Amino acid sequence: MEQLAIVEKDGANYHVYELTGALNAYTIGEFAETLYNAVRESNIVLDMSKLVELDPAGIGVLMAAFNDSEEFENKLYFMSISSEVDKAIAATGFKYEFHLINSVTEVK
After folding, report:
1. Could you tell me the pTM of the whole model?
2. What pLDDT, in 10s, does the model give residues 84-99?
3. From CA 77, how far away is CA 99, in angstroms rounded?
4. Is 15:47 a contact under the CB 8 Å cutoff?
5. Residues 36, 74: Cα–Cα separation, whole Å
């Protein structure tokens, strides 16, 4: 089973979480609470270039965090999504509702 590794970085008007491994029901744990709190405080960028798995539990957390960010007038960006993440997000039917970026220079 893949693990989830998270590296945090700060930007000018955003906070970045670089995610590596699997974002699923087994690994989401504490990160869900961290993400929910973070989107209330600032813009968040999730670098998903190294995610190899995103299951429905992970999608649910991302969708809830996205909605929370909008409610608190912040943005949750999905950056450099891997092909596996792209497939999972596309399957929701909401792919183009999310803020998809290729670089942190696109953060507004």
Report:
1. 0.94
2. 999 999 999 999 999 9
3. 5
4. no
5. 12
Is residue 104 a contact partner of residue 45, using CB atoms and an 8 Å limit? yes
Q: What's the length of the chain?
A: 108
What tokens does 62 get? 């991302």
Please say whether the beta carbons of 35 and 77 come within 8 A: no
30 in Cβ contact with 1 (< 8 Å):
no
Radius of gyration of the chain (CA): 12
Spatial CA neighbour of 45 closest among 2, 80, 90: 80
83-92 vs 56-71: helix axis angle to the nearest 10? 70
- Structure tokens belonging to residue 103: 């670089």
Is 98 within 8 Å of 66 (Cβ atoms)?
yes
SS3 77: strand
Token pair 């999730």 is found at: 46
